[in-house]
From TrEMBL, chains A, B, C, D:
It comes from the Bacteria. Residues 37-56 bind DNA. Keywords: DNA-binding. The keyword DNA-binding applies. SUPFAM superfamilies: Homeodomain-like. Pfam families: TetR_N (PF00440). Residues 14-74 form the HTH tetR-type domain. This is TetR/AcrR family transcriptional regulator. GO terms for molecular function: DNA binding. Gene3D superfamilies: Tetracycline Repressor, domain 2 (1.10.357.10).
Amino acid sequence: MGDTMDGSKQQRRGNTRQRIQDVALELFAEQGYEKTSLREIAERLDVTKAALYYHFKTKEEIIVSLFEDLTRPINELIEWGREQPHSLETKQELVRRYSRALAGAAPLFRFMQENQATVRELSIGESFKNRMLGMRDIIVDPDADLVAQVRCVSALFTLHAGMFVMQDIEADPEEKREAVLQVAIDLVTQAHQGS
Amino acid sequence: MGDTMDGSKQQRRGNTRQRIQDVALELFAEQGYEKTSLREIAERLDVTKAALYYHFKTKEEIIVSLFEDLTRPINELIEWGREQPHSLETKQELVRRYSRALAGAAPLFRFMQENQATVRELSIGESFKNRMLGMRDIIVDPDADLVAQVRCVSALFTLHAGMFVMQDIEADPEEKREAVLQVAIDLVTQAHQGS
Amino acid sequence: MGDTMDGSKQQRRGNTRQRIQDVALELFAEQGYEKTSLREIAERLDVTKAALYYHFKTKEEIIVSLFEDLTRPINELIEWGREQPHSLETKQELVRRYSRALAGAAPLFRFMQENQATVRELSIGESFKNRMLGMRDIIVDPDADLVAQVRCVSALFTLHAGMFVMQDIEADPEEKREAVLQVAIDLVTQAHQGS
Amino acid sequence: MGDTMDGSKQQRRGNTRQRIQDVALELFAEQGYEKTSLREIAERLDVTKAALYYHFKTKEEIIVSLFEDLTRPINELIEWGREQPHSLETKQELVRRYSRALAGAAPLFRFMQENQATVRELSIGESFKNRMLGMRDIIVDPDADLVAQVRCVSALFTLHAGMFVMQDIEADPEEKREAVLQVAIDLVTQAHQGS
DNA sequence: TATGAATGAGGCTTCATTCAT
DNA sequence: AATGAATGAAGCCTCATTCAT
């Protein structure tokens, strides 16, 4: 009581950092990292630019923090994968889990897909690439023939593509995700059985 | 003689416009459109910024001109596709030709893949998207089931991915391209035969 | 006990003001007043910037307080000088005492020597300049010829220079101080005896 | 004629670089390097900040260029000194020439004297210090006793001090310069004859 | 006695663009 | 066909300072 008058100001206390991340990710994904200015982010939050600098030392630190927070599930997934036998079942399950992880960090992945040039120059670029190669190494058997290898890479890429390119196809989102998953699993399975 | 002394100056005559495009595309692909300044382009060419403005009215015009010049083969491909019957053979041939077209305009596609956010805001963004949807409409049968549709989209995307993601896999480039093509054709074929 | 565990925290009690002055003077002398930020001072003390404002109303107040604390011996010296007869003995003794006073406030003088432009704009600038002129008026006889006057000014300046410029000459510091003092006394003595 | 209407605009063509240097040195000397903003310099010249950047890549480059341009006479002086025998006559002549060189670059030296902290951090700091040590090595005999060495250093410093500290003593500037020179020469001479 | 959060002003720098020559 | 000089807008970042707690 006496406190409940203004909900919007209430929520503002103590979670500014989080709010900055949210708005930043939204704008980065929509317009690109370079085209999004700190002024813009600050204005949307009704705060001064200087306030951003209280919470993050640089513009880059904002996006790095997003990476660190949002890619954790994928890191864990890769670690899980590394400890499993490289069997077909593992690969299928990995694809299944990856599909779910992607859905959870959709805005970040949209950002990454659309700003690869930027990401590459960022300090996270390298670390992320390594992670993806880790993923590939679990799913791709380096002794298999080339076509099988391509199938596996394609499976991963199909999941990515599924998030964005498929947007224009009209269908229930959940149904679409399942269709995409199905195709990816087929690709992995075919790769396993020999071309 | 008196003219023959300096070969490099010779070649420079009259093709500055072309040289600007070459350097620009290289830098745009490498660092992104926003991060590449006209100063940088000019310096690489050993020319002043103002010289660029003699050949192009704006920075955007440089990239637009690249699009127009380099996507022509793909436009023609789509037009060809539209006139063919939507048979399996057509689709397979389309995939084959698309693979070749991509290889021809690799730097541009690398640029587009890595700067989607930028491209979307550029005036060519929409027009290009429409073209790609045209491509999709030839290959994807809207009455087929969802999985079949995903397979077709995935085929196209596999070709794209093939150009960049596969770079780290060690194999002869031409062999790789063929393996990628094989997988794409399989996807289209499977889609046609029913999931 | 419960209090005795951490010696470093103990010492910190109640003398934060002093610690701020110490760190500030060190940094001001090293990097200059303008280039030294309150953030930097606070970080070195492991305190927040706001804490500085509990002890000092402004950044300027920090340096003003240093002046007031550290130039007291020199003020007293000048007052002493004013009450003595303007004899050669007085002048020699003044130079001797000044040499000792300078050694006691070395960091402050180093700061002043290296940041004259800043000091001039600070509120203490004028007051300090007046003090130095007071010093000069004791030692310089306005009726003497110009060369004699220059000798006296030079004597004072030699003492200053001795603190910094001589650093690179290798010799025992105390011996150096004495050599400097000797030269200064000679200058004053020569001035007194007529050029 | 037809050209002679507006002298101030006329002079502006083609010598902007020089004008920037002039105004910059004046302001740097008056207020210090850090406290002088590029905005201020630009405003005084009735130009935009960006214009400064056409002529100098950074703020630091402005002052570095001033150093390079204005310390040339002193560099030459040192080189001359190095080639002479280290006789008393040489030392006296060096002091005489140095006095003249200082008068020629008075504003720069005023700047340096008053912004030592800044100069030290600048890229020229080290190079300048080395030059001054070169000067010292010509005039100071490392085998002489300490007092003699101090006398020589003091001679140089007296010349510096003469430019600024003596300002308040009322006398004809040229007479003052000569008095200062006289004292410096006396110091060098005494040093040479043994303390 | 101090912190956490924020502000407003201003710093240096870069950019795309223009225009007279 | 190209340069030299300049502009206006905007970018990122840092600073001294404030105030409620």
